[in-house]
Amino acid sequence: MSSPANLTVALVQQSNTDNAAQNMAKSIAAIRDAASQGAQLVVLQELHRSLYFCQTEDVDVFDLAETIPGPSSDTLGQLAKELSIVIVASLFEKRATGLYHNTAVVLEKDGTIAGKYRKMHIPDDPGFYEKFYFTPGDLGFAPIQTSVGKLGVLVCWDQWFPEAARLMAMAGAELLIYPTAIGWDPRDDKGEQTRQKDAWVISQRAHAVANGVPVISCNRVGHESDPSGQSEGIQFWGNSFIAGPQGELLAEANNTDEQLLIVELDQKRSENVRRIWPYLRDRRIDHYQDLTKIYRD
């Protein structure tokens, strides 16, 4: 399946409430807006149906999970078919009772499921208690073939690991896509907030550079309270962006507003960049064996 020479991509940066139906309606409205402006691929943020529920550990939250295929993937599949676009959505997957994943599903423009990716790296930090909810993925780092190209879909915490991006690129991914939910502790001072956000942007732009492919990073925005009242919640910092294969910023959202970013990518640029920066050619795989160790003692 050949990829289009020029691909118009969009990402939806939105704020959420505890009303799943309203959140989904907001996502759908933004997808329609993106399609009306020519988008062929639309990316939604991590867990776009709900609040970011991992601030606390609560067994009742498992009621939010759903199967794939299931209600949300069916709805988005019908929308993808109606609009003739590809959609990347992030869902709380119920694989079986007691077995749940943080899963990105890709809906093809004929409405079918092109593939899915289960988040591999699962964090466990104050305010981000994801290990309570999500079993680490078991599908590996496998790009998903679609009518608009081979998509290297990863999720949030995965974005800090160069190994994940590299393995996707080595398997032929033409784009790296990161649905995300990341924000500040409101108690952090401005200096610390700036350092965290800048590190997040730098890391993902570096994946674009190191692998010679564009990166789409879609984050949520707005403040979400801690249901337990033990902290001041999370201020999601937005700043969603689309970068080219040299890490150049093609579009960037702010850290306060819901925004729709739309960019036309020249897919030939990756080929040209990889010719002048042939990192894959010069890798010394004969000396990388220690990368399979947790640490070199």
Output the keywords.
single chain; alpha+beta; Nitrilase/N-carbamoyl-D-aminoacid amidohydrolase; 6-stranded mixed beta sheet; 17 strands; Carbon-nitrogen hydrolase; N-carbamoylputrescine amidase activity; C-N_Hydrolase; Aliph_Amidase/BUP
What is the element string, with H for helices and E for strands? EHEHEEEEEEEHEEHEEEEEEH
Largest sheet report: 6 strands, mixed
Q: Low-confidence segments, ≥5 residues, pLDDT <50?
A: none
Strand content: 25-35%
Number of strands: 17
What's the overall geometry?
A: globular
Instruction: Supply the CATH superfamily name.
Output: Carbon-nitrogen hydrolase
State the helical fraction: 10-25%
Please name the CATH architecture.
4-Layer Sandwich
User: Structural class, from helix and strand content?
Assistant: alpha+beta
